């Protein structure tokens, strides 16, 4: 009996969860003949009826990057919006924070009106809805970018990409709302659910001031369950403000006021928020949130790509890939990332320089031999000049004082002379001697060598003159 009750409980929970889960009535695209005229399933229409919604009543879209979620809210008969279905975003590029310029791979954050003309049935990504970026606020702040979409194909470069099964339902919900007379669908794109705990966790993010501005509109929708009226003045968003003046995005805001009923409701909401925020600050004291890169998010869901086309590129949730760190740990991690990025940029610059040189026909420089090594080698084989005594430097009659004739090449080594039959050492023939131009004195010595050896008396060397008589007469 207990097992049966457990099965019933699980079944009921699954049915209730299906009301806001992307797996509800998963679309079989193979059976869809006309994607732009796709009709919502009978179960989806029945759910609308249970919530007091007309098939063609207005809708609102909310996006939360960190959770990777796109919500479809729909107006009931009391003109209050209720959550109809929640979809898991398949891919969004960049990190938390608004899009600032073309090519930064950031997905937009802010409030964007979607008009019927922004529905694109001929998109290369199955179906698409243009977000309308840049809106009035983005333009007033000099932000640039084009073609930022909510589309299919699960591949993003600054867009919010869904699966084809998801986008065909979202497209149909928007189409039916426009048919019912809704002029524009409000898209609210947030970095995360702006609860007290999340705001405390991201308090050190450089985008926190921008997010605090968006939070005003977020809070007012949470309280009223109606899309806030959005205007821009002084290059900032203002929500649900009454004024007799005109709102100009770059000019000073006109005199304005908040409706009394909304002001009272927001006062109570803000009081609860401040209490919860102070509690969250104590929880996260000394800790900071590490916001993961797109690559780190992709790594978490890498297995989802198996068996699919390469274009299918889910990016995962920041909550799954990010983590809380101590301040010192985060600083170290950021420094390592910065060092790696600088090395990557240096390698890229070097590669571009080599490619440019190749295009211009310039040869790459060839390293030359070190001349210092050759000089040392040559110096080692040069014969050192005979050293002269201190007295010889000043002697006029010193035989070594005469200039030295150029040294001829050294003769090749010869085999030692063999002994003759009579025991006398055989004198090598004259022709075996190298032919060298010698000084006359050398010739005389050569002739004397051919004569029989005769003992000679030692030749008296000229006497050296005393140092003090070098300059004497």
TrEMBL record:
Organism whose genome encodes this protein: Sinorhizobium medicae
Pfam families the record matches: YkuD
Gene Ontology annotations of biological process type: cell wall organization; peptidoglycan biosynthetic process; regulation of cell shape
Entry keyword set: Cell shape, Cell wall biogenesis/degradation, Peptidoglycan synthesis, Transferase
UniProt feature, compositional bias: Low complexity: 399-412, 428-458
Superkingdom classification of source: Bacteria
Domain L,D-TPase catalytic: 59-190
An MF annotation (GO) of this entry: carboxypeptidase activity
Record's protein name: L,D-TPase catalytic domain-containing protein
Protein family according to the UniProt entry: Belongs to the YkuD family.
């Amino acid at each position: 009996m207990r097992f049966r009750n457990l099965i019933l409980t699980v079944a009921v929970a699954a049915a209730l969860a299906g009301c806001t889960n992307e797996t509800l009535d998963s679309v079989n695209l193979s059976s869809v003949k006309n994607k732009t005229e796709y009709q919502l399933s009978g179960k989806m229409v029945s759910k609308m009826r249970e919530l007091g919604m007309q098939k063609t009543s207005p809708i609102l879209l909310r996006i939360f990057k960190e959770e990777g979620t796109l919500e479809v809210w729909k107006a009931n008969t009391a003109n209050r919006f209720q959550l109809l279905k929640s979809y898991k975003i398949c891919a969004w590029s960049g990190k938390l924070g608004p899009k600032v310029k073309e090519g930064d791979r950031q997905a937009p954050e802010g409030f964007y009106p979607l008009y019927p003309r922004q529905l694109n049935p001929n998109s290369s990504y199955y179906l698409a809805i243009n977000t309308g970026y840049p809106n009035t606020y983005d333009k007033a702040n000099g932000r640039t970018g084009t073609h930022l979409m909510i589309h299919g194909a699960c591949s993003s470069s600054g867009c919010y990409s869904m699966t084809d099964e998801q986008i065909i339902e979202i497209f149909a919900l928007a189409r039916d709302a426009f048919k019912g007379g809704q002029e524009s669908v409000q898209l609210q794109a947030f970095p995360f659910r702006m609860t007290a705990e999340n705001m405390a966790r991201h308090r050190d993010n450089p985008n926190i001031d921008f997010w605090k501005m968006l939070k005003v509109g977020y809070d007012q929708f949470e309280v009223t369950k109606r899309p806030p009226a959005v205007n821009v003045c002084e290059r900032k968003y203002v929500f649900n403000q009454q004024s007799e003046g005109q709102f100009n995005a770059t000019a000073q805001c006109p005199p304005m006021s908040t409706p009394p009923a909304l002001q009272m409701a927001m006062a109570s909401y803000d009081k609860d928020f401040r209490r919860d925020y102070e509690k969250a600050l104590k929880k996260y004291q000394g800790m900071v949130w590490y916001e993961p890169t797109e690559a780190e998010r992709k790594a978490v869901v890498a297995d989802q790509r198996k068996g699919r086309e390469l274009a299918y590129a889910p990016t995962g949730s920041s909550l799954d890939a990010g983590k809380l760190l101590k301040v010192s740990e985060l600083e170290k991690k950021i420094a390592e990332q910065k060092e790696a990025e600088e090395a990557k940029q240096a390698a890229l610059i070097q590669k571009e320089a080599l490619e440019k040189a190749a295009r211009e026909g310039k040869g790459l420089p060839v390293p030359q031999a070190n001349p210092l090594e050759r000089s040392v080698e040559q110096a080692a084989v040069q014969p050192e000049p005979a050293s002269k005594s201190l007295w010889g430097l000043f002697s006029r009659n010193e035989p070594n004082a005469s200039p030295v004739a150029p040294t001829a090449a050294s003769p090749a080594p010869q085999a030692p002379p063999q002994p003759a039959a009579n025991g006398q050492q055989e004198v090598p023939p004259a022709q075996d001697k190298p032919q060298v131009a010698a000084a006359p004195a050398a010739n005389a010595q050569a002739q004397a060598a051919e004569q029989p050896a005769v003992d000679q008396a030692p030749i008296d060397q000229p006497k050296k003159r005393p140092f003090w008589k070098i300059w004497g007469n």
